[in-house]
Fold:
Amino acid sequence: MLRLSVHRVLVAIPTLILVSMLIFGLQKLLPGDPVTAMAGEVQDPQVIALLRHQYHLDESIPQQYALWVGAVLHGDLGTSLRTSVPVRTLIAQKLPVTLQLSLMALVVALLIGVPAGIVSAARRGTPIDYIANVFALSGMSIPTFWFGIILILVVSVKWRLLPSSGYVPPTEDLWLSIKTLLLPALVLGASLGAQLMRHTRSAMLGVLRSDYIRTARAKGLLWPAVIIKHGFRNALGPIVTVLTLLFGELLAGAVLTEQVFTIPGFGKLIVDSVFNRDYAVVQGVVLCTAAGFIVMNLLADVLYTLLNPRLRQD
Structure:
Protein backbone atom coordinates (compact mmCIF):
# COMPACT_ATOMS: atom_id res chain seq x y z
CA MET A 1 0.00 0.00 0.00
CA LEU A 2 2.72 2.46 1.02
CA ARG A 3 4.89 1.44 -1.92
CA LEU A 4 2.03 2.01 -4.36
CA SER A 5 1.29 5.44 -2.89
CA VAL A 6 4.94 6.51 -3.09
CA HIS A 7 5.14 5.27 -6.68
CA ARG A 8 2.04 7.27 -7.66
CA VAL A 9 3.42 10.41 -6.04
CA LEU A 10 6.73 10.00 -7.88
CA VAL A 11 4.84 9.64 -11.15
CA ALA A 12 2.70 12.69 -10.37
CA ILE A 13 5.69 15.01 -9.89
CA PRO A 14 7.00 14.90 -13.51
CA THR A 15 3.40 15.01 -14.71
CA LEU A 16 2.84 18.25 -12.82
CA ILE A 17 6.10 19.68 -14.18
CA LEU A 18 5.05 18.83 -17.75
CA VAL A 19 1.63 20.37 -17.15
CA SER A 20 3.21 23.57 -15.83
CA MET A 21 5.36 23.80 -18.98
CA LEU A 22 2.31 23.33 -21.18
CA ILE A 23 0.32 25.91 -19.24
CA PHE A 24 3.08 28.48 -19.47
CA GLY A 25 3.87 27.76 -23.11
CA LEU A 26 0.33 27.62 -24.46
CA GLN A 27 -0.75 30.86 -22.82
CA LYS A 28 2.00 32.60 -24.81
CA LEU A 29 0.07 31.61 -27.94
CA LEU A 30 -2.98 33.60 -26.87
CA PRO A 31 -3.59 36.57 -29.19
CA GLY A 32 -3.01 40.11 -27.99
CA ASP A 33 -0.55 41.84 -25.70
CA PRO A 34 -1.54 42.17 -22.02
CA VAL A 35 0.81 45.12 -21.49
CA THR A 36 -0.79 47.05 -24.35
CA ALA A 37 -4.21 46.32 -22.86
CA MET A 38 -3.02 47.51 -19.44
CA ALA A 39 -1.63 50.73 -20.90
CA GLY A 40 -5.07 51.64 -22.23
CA GLU A 41 -5.44 54.52 -24.64
CA VAL A 42 -2.18 56.15 -23.56
CA GLN A 43 0.33 54.07 -25.51
CA ASP A 44 3.41 55.72 -24.04
CA PRO A 45 6.51 53.65 -24.98
CA GLN A 46 8.13 54.38 -21.63
CA VAL A 47 5.05 53.20 -19.71
CA ILE A 48 4.86 50.04 -21.82
CA ALA A 49 8.57 49.35 -21.29
CA LEU A 50 8.17 49.88 -17.54
CA LEU A 51 5.24 47.48 -17.39
CA ARG A 52 7.13 44.87 -19.37
CA HIS A 53 10.07 45.15 -16.98
CA GLN A 54 7.81 45.08 -13.92
CA TYR A 55 6.18 41.81 -14.99
CA HIS A 56 9.44 40.36 -16.47
CA LEU A 57 7.88 40.26 -19.93
CA ASP A 58 11.02 41.76 -21.45
CA GLU A 59 13.01 38.62 -20.66
CA SER A 60 13.24 35.39 -22.62
CA ILE A 61 10.53 32.76 -22.26
CA PRO A 62 12.80 30.25 -20.42
CA GLN A 63 13.75 32.97 -17.93
CA GLN A 64 10.10 33.92 -17.46
CA TYR A 65 9.22 30.27 -16.87
CA ALA A 66 12.03 29.84 -14.35
CA LEU A 67 10.95 32.95 -12.45
CA TRP A 68 7.33 31.80 -12.46
CA VAL A 69 8.15 28.29 -11.22
CA GLY A 70 10.41 29.70 -8.52
CA ALA A 71 7.63 31.98 -7.32
CA VAL A 72 5.08 29.13 -7.40
CA LEU A 73 7.34 26.96 -5.25
CA HIS A 74 7.31 29.76 -2.69
CA GLY A 75 3.51 29.97 -2.79
CA ASP A 76 3.35 33.04 -5.04
CA LEU A 77 1.14 32.50 -8.09
CA GLY A 78 1.66 36.03 -9.32
CA THR A 79 -0.53 39.11 -9.47
CA SER A 80 -3.45 39.86 -11.74
CA LEU A 81 -2.43 42.14 -14.59
CA ARG A 82 -5.88 43.72 -14.61
CA THR A 83 -6.77 44.19 -10.94
CA SER A 84 -3.36 43.94 -9.23
CA VAL A 85 -4.87 41.40 -6.82
CA PRO A 86 -2.71 38.37 -5.93
CA VAL A 87 -3.78 35.30 -7.86
CA ARG A 88 -3.89 33.14 -4.75
CA THR A 89 -6.35 35.63 -3.23
CA LEU A 90 -8.62 35.30 -6.27
CA ILE A 91 -8.35 31.51 -6.08
CA ALA A 92 -9.18 31.55 -2.37
CA GLN A 93 -12.30 33.58 -3.19
CA LYS A 94 -13.50 31.50 -6.15
CA LEU A 95 -12.52 27.95 -5.15
CA PRO A 96 -15.14 27.57 -2.36
CA VAL A 97 -17.88 28.49 -4.85
CA THR A 98 -16.84 25.79 -7.32
CA LEU A 99 -16.34 23.27 -4.52
CA GLN A 100 -19.85 23.88 -3.22
CA LEU A 101 -21.31 23.55 -6.71
CA SER A 102 -19.30 20.37 -7.38
CA LEU A 103 -20.34 18.76 -4.10
CA MET A 104 -24.02 19.51 -4.75
CA ALA A 105 -23.71 18.13 -8.28
CA LEU A 106 -22.01 15.04 -6.87
CA VAL A 107 -24.92 14.45 -4.49
CA VAL A 108 -27.37 14.77 -7.39
CA ALA A 109 -25.30 12.34 -9.46
CA LEU A 110 -25.17 9.80 -6.62
CA LEU A 111 -28.93 9.98 -6.07
CA ILE A 112 -29.55 9.43 -9.80
CA GLY A 113 -26.69 7.34 -11.14
CA VAL A 114 -26.07 4.66 -8.50
CA PRO A 115 -29.69 3.49 -7.98
CA ALA A 116 -30.35 3.61 -11.74
CA GLY A 117 -27.19 1.58 -12.43
CA ILE A 118 -28.07 -1.04 -9.81
CA VAL A 119 -31.65 -1.44 -11.01
CA SER A 120 -30.54 -1.53 -14.65
CA ALA A 121 -28.03 -4.30 -13.96
CA ALA A 122 -30.47 -6.27 -11.81
CA ARG A 123 -33.18 -6.02 -14.49
CA ARG A 124 -30.96 -6.47 -17.51
CA GLY A 125 -32.88 -6.81 -20.78
CA THR A 126 -36.14 -5.51 -19.33
CA PRO A 127 -37.93 -2.22 -20.17
CA ILE A 128 -36.45 -0.70 -16.99
CA ASP A 129 -32.96 -1.43 -18.30
CA TYR A 130 -33.75 0.17 -21.66
CA ILE A 131 -35.23 3.27 -20.00
CA ALA A 132 -32.14 3.65 -17.78
CA ASN A 133 -29.84 3.34 -20.79
CA VAL A 134 -31.84 5.94 -22.71
CA PHE A 135 -31.51 8.27 -19.73
CA ALA A 136 -27.75 7.68 -19.58
CA LEU A 137 -27.33 8.27 -23.31
CA SER A 138 -29.42 11.45 -23.13
CA GLY A 139 -27.53 12.76 -20.13
CA MET A 140 -24.17 12.28 -21.83
CA SER A 141 -25.37 13.67 -25.18
CA ILE A 142 -27.30 16.82 -24.22
CA PRO A 143 -25.00 19.87 -23.97
CA THR A 144 -24.88 21.27 -20.46
CA PHE A 145 -25.31 24.88 -21.60
CA TRP A 146 -28.47 24.00 -23.56
CA PHE A 147 -29.92 22.02 -20.67
CA GLY A 148 -29.11 24.90 -18.34
CA ILE A 149 -30.91 27.42 -20.54
CA ILE A 150 -33.97 25.16 -20.76
CA LEU A 151 -34.08 24.80 -16.97
CA ILE A 152 -33.81 28.56 -16.57
CA LEU A 153 -36.70 29.15 -18.99
CA VAL A 154 -38.95 26.52 -17.41
CA VAL A 155 -38.09 26.45 -13.71
CA SER A 156 -37.07 30.08 -13.16
CA VAL A 157 -38.90 32.15 -15.78
CA LYS A 158 -42.13 30.17 -16.22
CA TRP A 159 -42.61 28.46 -12.85
CA ARG A 160 -40.60 30.98 -10.74
CA LEU A 161 -39.42 28.26 -8.38
CA LEU A 162 -35.67 28.89 -8.23
CA PRO A 163 -33.32 31.79 -8.97
CA SER A 164 -32.02 31.84 -12.53
CA SER A 165 -28.52 33.12 -11.72
CA GLY A 166 -26.23 34.56 -9.10
CA TYR A 167 -24.66 33.19 -5.96
CA VAL A 168 -25.14 33.70 -2.23
CA PRO A 169 -22.44 32.42 0.17
CA PRO A 170 -23.70 29.81 2.66
CA THR A 171 -22.32 31.93 5.49
CA GLU A 172 -24.88 34.62 4.66
CA ASP A 173 -27.96 32.50 3.96
CA LEU A 174 -27.57 28.71 3.73
CA TRP A 175 -31.00 27.97 2.25
CA LEU A 176 -30.76 30.75 -0.34
CA SER A 177 -27.25 29.57 -1.22
CA ILE A 178 -28.57 26.06 -1.88
CA LYS A 179 -31.45 27.46 -3.96
CA THR A 180 -29.15 29.55 -6.16
CA LEU A 181 -26.92 26.54 -6.90
CA LEU A 182 -29.65 23.93 -7.24
CA LEU A 183 -30.28 24.46 -10.96
CA PRO A 184 -26.60 24.38 -12.00
CA ALA A 185 -26.09 21.39 -9.69
CA LEU A 186 -28.94 19.60 -11.50
CA VAL A 187 -27.35 20.40 -14.87
CA LEU A 188 -23.94 19.06 -13.85
CA GLY A 189 -25.38 16.23 -11.76
CA ALA A 190 -27.52 14.93 -14.63
CA SER A 191 -24.51 14.60 -16.91
CA LEU A 192 -22.35 13.12 -14.17
CA GLY A 193 -25.17 10.83 -13.03
CA ALA A 194 -25.52 9.46 -16.55
CA GLN A 195 -21.84 8.54 -16.64
CA LEU A 196 -22.02 7.12 -13.13
CA MET A 197 -25.05 5.04 -14.09
CA ARG A 198 -23.15 3.44 -16.96
CA HIS A 199 -20.14 2.63 -14.78
CA THR A 200 -22.33 1.30 -11.97
CA ARG A 201 -24.26 -0.90 -14.37
CA SER A 202 -21.06 -2.27 -15.91
CA ALA A 203 -19.51 -3.00 -12.52
CA MET A 204 -22.68 -4.64 -11.22
CA LEU A 205 -23.06 -6.82 -14.33
CA GLY A 206 -19.52 -8.10 -13.85
CA VAL A 207 -20.20 -8.93 -10.21
CA LEU A 208 -23.63 -10.50 -10.77
CA ARG A 209 -22.04 -13.07 -13.12
CA SER A 210 -19.75 -14.30 -10.36
CA ASP A 211 -19.98 -17.76 -8.79
CA TYR A 212 -20.57 -16.47 -5.27
CA ILE A 213 -23.69 -14.64 -6.47
CA ARG A 214 -25.10 -17.90 -7.81
CA THR A 215 -24.14 -19.59 -4.54
CA ALA A 216 -25.94 -16.91 -2.54
CA ARG A 217 -29.04 -17.36 -4.68
CA ALA A 218 -28.80 -21.15 -4.26
CA LYS A 219 -28.78 -20.71 -0.48
CA GLY A 220 -32.17 -19.09 -0.72
CA LEU A 221 -31.20 -15.48 -0.03
CA LEU A 222 -33.62 -12.85 -1.26
CA TRP A 223 -32.64 -11.21 -4.54
CA PRO A 224 -32.54 -7.64 -3.10
CA ALA A 225 -30.23 -8.82 -0.30
CA VAL A 226 -27.96 -10.55 -2.82
CA ILE A 227 -27.77 -7.41 -4.94
CA ILE A 228 -26.99 -5.02 -2.09
CA LYS A 229 -24.99 -7.17 0.33
CA HIS A 230 -23.01 -9.30 -2.12
CA GLY A 231 -23.29 -7.47 -5.42
CA PHE A 232 -23.03 -3.75 -4.75
CA ARG A 233 -20.46 -4.17 -1.97
CA ASN A 234 -18.07 -5.96 -4.32
CA ALA A 235 -18.74 -3.53 -7.16
CA LEU A 236 -18.05 -0.54 -4.93
CA GLY A 237 -14.30 -0.40 -5.71
CA PRO A 238 -14.48 0.64 -9.37
CA ILE A 239 -17.53 2.82 -8.68
CA VAL A 240 -15.70 4.84 -6.01
CA THR A 241 -12.65 5.11 -8.26
CA VAL A 242 -14.71 6.44 -11.17
CA LEU A 243 -16.60 8.76 -8.84
CA THR A 244 -13.36 10.28 -7.59
CA LEU A 245 -12.17 10.92 -11.14
CA LEU A 246 -15.53 12.38 -12.14
CA PHE A 247 -15.35 14.76 -9.19
CA GLY A 248 -12.00 15.95 -10.53
CA GLU A 249 -13.68 16.55 -13.88
CA LEU A 250 -16.36 18.57 -12.10
CA LEU A 251 -13.78 20.89 -10.58
CA ALA A 252 -12.18 21.42 -13.97
CA GLY A 253 -15.19 21.32 -16.26
CA ALA A 254 -17.86 23.59 -14.78
CA VAL A 255 -16.86 26.44 -17.09
CA LEU A 256 -19.95 26.57 -19.30
CA THR A 257 -22.37 25.98 -16.44
CA GLU A 258 -20.88 28.79 -14.37
CA GLN A 259 -21.07 31.08 -17.38
CA VAL A 260 -24.72 30.25 -18.06
CA PHE A 261 -25.80 30.74 -14.44
CA THR A 262 -23.40 33.65 -13.73
CA ILE A 263 -21.71 31.86 -10.85
CA PRO A 264 -18.46 33.53 -9.70
CA GLY A 265 -16.43 30.33 -9.53
CA PHE A 266 -13.29 28.89 -11.08
CA GLY A 267 -14.84 28.49 -14.51
CA LYS A 268 -16.05 32.07 -14.82
CA LEU A 269 -12.74 33.33 -13.44
CA ILE A 270 -10.68 31.58 -16.11
CA VAL A 271 -13.02 32.62 -18.95
CA ASP A 272 -12.90 36.25 -17.88
CA SER A 273 -9.11 36.05 -17.51
CA VAL A 274 -8.69 34.66 -21.02
CA PHE A 275 -10.83 37.44 -22.51
CA ASN A 276 -8.92 40.04 -20.49
CA ARG A 277 -5.55 38.50 -21.41
CA ASP A 278 -4.77 38.22 -17.71
CA TYR A 279 -2.03 35.62 -18.15
CA ALA A 280 -1.06 35.39 -14.47
CA VAL A 281 -4.60 34.44 -13.43
CA VAL A 282 -4.95 31.94 -16.30
CA GLN A 283 -1.68 30.25 -15.33
CA GLY A 284 -2.55 30.13 -11.64
CA VAL A 285 -6.09 28.82 -12.07
CA VAL A 286 -5.18 26.18 -14.66
CA LEU A 287 -2.19 25.05 -12.59
CA CYS A 288 -4.37 24.65 -9.48
CA THR A 289 -6.99 22.80 -11.51
CA ALA A 290 -4.38 20.43 -12.95
CA ALA A 291 -2.87 19.87 -9.50
CA GLY A 292 -6.32 19.14 -8.10
CA PHE A 293 -7.02 16.64 -10.87
CA ILE A 294 -3.71 14.87 -10.21
CA VAL A 295 -4.54 14.72 -6.50
CA MET A 296 -7.95 13.22 -7.29
CA ASN A 297 -6.23 10.58 -9.44
CA LEU A 298 -3.93 9.73 -6.54
CA LEU A 299 -6.93 9.54 -4.22
CA ALA A 300 -8.72 7.24 -6.67
CA ASP A 301 -5.74 4.86 -6.71
CA VAL A 302 -5.53 4.84 -2.92
CA LEU A 303 -9.27 4.27 -2.46
CA TYR A 304 -9.31 1.45 -5.00
CA THR A 305 -6.42 -0.21 -3.18
CA LEU A 306 -8.19 0.14 0.17
CA LEU A 307 -11.41 -1.32 -1.22
CA ASN A 308 -9.67 -4.22 -2.96
CA PRO A 309 -8.01 -6.59 -0.45
CA ARG A 310 -6.12 -8.43 -3.20
CA LEU A 311 -4.18 -5.28 -4.10
CA ARG A 312 -3.31 -4.65 -0.45
CA GLN A 313 -1.68 -8.08 -0.29
CA ASP A 314 0.58 -7.42 -3.30
Observations:
- Residues 137 and 194 are 7 Å apart (CA to CA).
- The chain has a mean pLDDT of 85.
- Residues 88-313 form a domain with the MetI-like fold fold (CATH 1.10.3720.10).
